Every structure is written in structure tokens, then in C-alpha cells.
Automatic annotation (TrEMBL):
This is Flavodoxin family protein. The lineage of its organism: Bacteria, Bacillati, Actinomycetota, Coriobacteriia, Eggerthellales. Residues 4-124 form the NADPH-dependent FMN reductase-like domain. Pfam families: FMN_red. The keyword ATP-binding does not apply. It comes from the Bacteria. InterPro entries: Flavoprotein-like_sf (IPR029039), FMN_Rdtase-like_dom (IPR005025), ISF_SsuE-like (IPR051796). It comes from Gordonibacter faecis. Keywords: Flavoprotein, FMN. PANTHER family: IRON-SULFUR FLAVOPROTEIN, NAD(P)H-DEPENDENT FMN-CONTAINING OXIDOREDUCTASE YWQN-RELATED. The keyword Iron does not apply. Coiled coil: none annotated.
Amino acid sequence: MGKNVLVLNGSPRKHGNTAALVEAFSKGAEQTGSTVVRFDVALMDIAPCRGCLGGGADVNSPCVQKDDMDAIYAAYRAADVVVLASPMYCWSFTAQEKAVLDRLFALMEASMCAAAAGGAEAAAAAAESGGKECVLIMPAEENTERNFAPIISYYVTLCERMGWRDRGRVLVGGVYEAGAIAGNPALDEAFQLGASLA
Ligand SMILES: Cc1cc2nc3c(=O)[nH]c(=O)nc-3n(C[C@H](O)[C@H](O)[C@H](O)COP(=O)(O)O)c2cc1C
């Protein structure tokens, strides 16, 4: 059965290596009946979290900051699969991708507000986080195990704490310039991973 797939692409390069991997992955997903909703978050108006702890009142717009995150909250709640696609920046996600992850905290606040008002069922409905699956897609310059160790550790923790089930990772070293991914077998790996979701 096809899945609702949410792709969060954190690369600021429109035609970069992350975009190429995302396109291959999406093709695989769509060819096997999944629906892909993609956000190029580095090209959107998404501010970093302010840490005000004041969100959660409205589950459809749970953050106090009103920007393009509102579209992502809705897509996140509807998604079966969350795809974290980002180039490696300083052994982690780009700041733009990380801002989206931080801002998802407002959905947890909405869940807490709902729990206070209407019990655990309402809280679960507000967060709609549990039961989701997750994928990591990341190109990087350095092609060593050591280079990827910090992001793998972070991703594993994120999946565990967010209640996401890891469906697979495409980690590609040795690509630096935009377009360097052309002809790389990782593109087929991404396609196959997308196709395996349904
Ligand atoms: C600010 C910045 C930080 C980077 N940090 C790393 C890094 O820590 N490790 C690495 O292997 N590559 C690093 N890179 C290289 C990118 O991950 C690589 O160029 C990637 O293919 C870019 O993907 P894109 O074309 O989708 O933007 C960095 C690049 C930039 C611009």
C-alpha cells in the first residue's frame, strides 16, 4: 500500500546533490504508489525556535511564530514516512533542517495541551508522531566511516525519541560540488529505498 511521504530537504542548493538524491528517492516512491510531499526548507521562511515554551494552543498552528512551518505541521501530521534529506554541514544537518526539527517541538506542546484538556487520546491525535517511519538521506564531502558517525548517532537517537521507525539511510561520501552525485550508485540506492516503502 502506498504511503504518505514527507520529504524535508535542507539543502540551500536547488540543484545540489541532496536534490538529486531526493528526486531519485521520490521517483521510486511514486512509481510504487506512494505520495510524496516535498519541502525545500532552506528556501522557505522558517525561523529558528525561540525557546519560549509558549506554543501548543492551536494544533493546526502550534508555534507562536507564524511562518512557513504551518504547512509543514499539517504535512507532518498526515505523513507515514518522514524523510530527513540534508547535506552534511559540520558533521550534522544544515541549520535550516535543524530549525524544522526544533520547531516540531510545538506539536509536542500541542499534545501536552490536548492531554491536559482531553486525555491521552487527544494528545496522541495532536502529535500524530508515534508510528511514523523515517529515512535519512545525506551527501557529504568526506567518505569515511568516522565522518558519518556523529550523524548516525544523532539520527538513531532522534528516531528512538520521536517514535519513528528507521526505514533506511543513504549516506554518500565523496561528493562536494553540486552535481558531483551524477552517475553515483547512491542514486539507485535512493530510488530502491523509495520503492521499498510501499
Ligand atoms: C558549510 C558547509 C559545511 C560542510 N561540512 C561538511 C562536513 O562536516 N563533512 C563533510 O564531509 N562535508 C561537508 N560539507 C560538504 C557538503 O556536505 C557537500 O558539498 C554536499 O554534497 C552538499 O550537498 P548539496 O549539493 O545538496 O548542497 C560542507 C559544506 C558546506 C558548504
